[in-house]
Amino acid sequence: MRPPIRCTHDVDACLEGIIDGTVDALATDHAPHAGSEKMQEFEKCPFGILGLETAIGLSFARLVNNGLIPLKRMIELYTTGPANILKLNRGTLQAGSPGDVTILDPRRTWHYELAKSASKSRNSPFDGWQFQGGPTHTIVSGKVVWRAS
Q1: Domain of 81: which CATH number?
Q2: Domain that holds residue 89
Q3: I need a labelling partner for 9 at 20 to 30 A (CA). Which of 84, 89, 101, 142 fits?
Q4: Could you give the CA distance from residue 147 to residue 102 in angstroms, rounded to a whole number?
């Protein structure tokens, strides 16, 4: 969201970088802002939208389900890609690694409803969107901390 991508040329360039391997990682900058922070002159508003809850669904929709990248590549962009950049022992299921896992179901159909969001922010352009493919469980340190309803 910062800098904002404002034209199809910029979107196409980002997609090309993801497809050709120039982009090493995808991530969200989950910095929620209260509605009161967003209800001011546009130029004074903090950058950002909700991204954590829709990133995987949008990646399935725009990248995987459209055939631009395989599912394996999408998973790498969210796991080993960021871990390698930050030199962290993360993004892998190897013995001795933290038991942090998100289970994905490429066939899961789900509906994003902003009113049911766990975030304290309420600014998302994806309210009401239907997604094909997404998370079913999140496991942190070996314990299920979130399960799709």
Answers
A1: 3.20.20.140
A2: 8-147
A3: 84
A4: 10
Residue 69 domain flag: yes
For residue 90, pLDDT over 80 is answered with yes
Q: What domain count does the chain have?
A: 1
Place of tokens 């910095």: 31
In a domain, 81, yes or no: yes
In a domain, 39, yes or no: yes
pLDDT digits 0-9 by tens, 117-139? 888 777 788 999 999 999 999 99
Catalytic residue chosen out of the listed positions 10, 12, 24, 29: 29
13 φ, ψ (degrees, to nearest 5): -65, -40
Distances (CA, A) of 122 to 99, 114, 117, 147: 31, 7, 8, 21
The answer to the question of residue 3 being in a domain is: no
Angstrom distance (rounded) from CA 54 to CA 63:
14
Contact partners, residue 85, CB within 8 Å, separation at least 6 = 24, 25
pLDDT in tens, 3-61: 777 789 999 999 999 999 999 999 987 766 777 777 778 777 777 777 888 999 999 99
